[in-house]
Here is the input.
Amino acid sequence: MNSRSGLTLIEVLIAMLILGVLLVTLSTALVPMFRITASTQKATQANITAQAVMETVHGQFANPKIDAFKKSCVSKYTLPGKVSVTITTYDSAGQRVGSPAVLSTNCGTAIPDSTWRPYKLIIVEALPRTPEQVRLVLEVPNPNPHS
Here is the structure.
C-alpha cells in the first residue's frame, strides 16, 4: 500500500480559493473604514486650525491696548489656507449693525467703528463647503468700557 502524506493539487487550489474569498470580503469591509479615518483626520486638523485662529483673533480683540476690536482686524498674522473669518457687529440693543465683514489682517488700513459697540461675533470657518467643515462662533465683548 502507498501511504503518502500531504495535500493534492485540488485541495491546495480549493484552499487558495477559500482564502481569496475571505480576503476580498475583509478588504471590502476595511476600505470604508480607511475612508472614514481619513475624513476624521481632516476634520480634526480643521478643528485644530480653526481653534488656533479663533484664539489669535480673540486674544487681539480682548486686548484693550490695541484697536483690533474697534477696527475688526488682527495685526502681524496671516490666516491659514482654507480658513475664513467674519465679524458681525452688534449695538447696545443687541441688533446687528450692517453686514458681516471679513476680518482684516492689516490694522494699519482698517477703518475703526464710528461709535462704541458692546460686542462682536467672530465666526471662523475651516474647510468650507466640504464634509469636514468646521465652524466656530464666539461672542467677544468690547475690551474698552463704554465712554
In short: The CA atoms of residues 37 and 43 lie 10 Å apart.
